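Justification of resources, computational component.

The compute hours requested in this renewal are based largely on the per-chain cost of generating structure records like the one below. Each record pairs the submitted sequence with a full structure-token output. That output is archived, and it is also reused by downstream analysis tasks.
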Amino acid sequence: MNMEATSPPVSGHGPDPSIQQVTVVGCGTMGNGIAQVFATCGYQVELVDLSAPALEKAINTIARNLDRVVAKGSLDQESRDAALARIHTGTSLAAAAQTADLVVEAATENRQIKLELFRQLDQLCPPPCILATNTSSISITDIAGATGRPSKVIGMHFMNPVPVMKLVEIIKGYNTDPGVTATIVEVSRRLGKIPVEANDYPGFVANRILMPMINEAVHTLFEGVAGVAEIDTVMKLGMAHPMGPLQLADFIGLDVCLAILRVLHEGFGQPKYAPCPLLVKMVSSGNLGVKTGKGFYAYQAGSKDLVVAPEFSGSV
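The structure output for this chain reads:
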């Protein structure tokens, strides 16, 4: 899988006339990727976060990503500069929300944080504004229930890395208006993405299938069936997966994987979704994968070598 950050070409139709101003809440890996894609495709973007240093880091990341796209010949310098100029940053949610046609929330995958954010957004955004969440598992219907505009709340689940991955999972809440769904499907297409609609059940489609597989891979390691590299090699060579499940878990973030599994376990009440004790222990210890430098593999800045973490190097 090519994980180098690129951007889809700007659609010949430009931004959807009904959606011009997009506010992205949260400037982490997903938030800055979402902001980059919208800006590259001609939308004006307000990128908001509580942390000014985090916003500065996000803009630097976007700039580096766009520079790589220019170096590859997929974007010219003028378009790169114009895209970057369309992104405005700030720490005030009220200021960022007041002119938004669409909000895409990309905050921490925590139910209470998202509910509180949507309560605030409902009060701050203009009445026509669509409120979308990038949640990977939390109920859209529950999030919509925190607002006075449930018909205008929808899931817009981008994949990581956002500039590279084509899929956008569009999740309809119980009260989502069909017209809102149609608008978000069209916006996704204008971003150069392929939208796929799903109904609102825990994990939607992507993570309802993916997370149990990752969890089973962790169980396979936990029970001593095979080592980290061996498990990933079997899935890559035997099942044609571009990345093994344990490496993918590191890339996603082990804390994110755990949070999604807990949503699945609580939502369905079935033991097959219960997180593996090893995954729970690793998250508790702070070994979260790529973002902390260690998970199932150990990561060093500037190195692309895949090295099994010392704790697991002699597991078989």
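The beta strands are 21-25, 44-48, 87-90, 102-105, 130-133, 153-158, 167-172, 194-199, 297-298, 307-308. The first strand starts at residue 21 and ends at 25.
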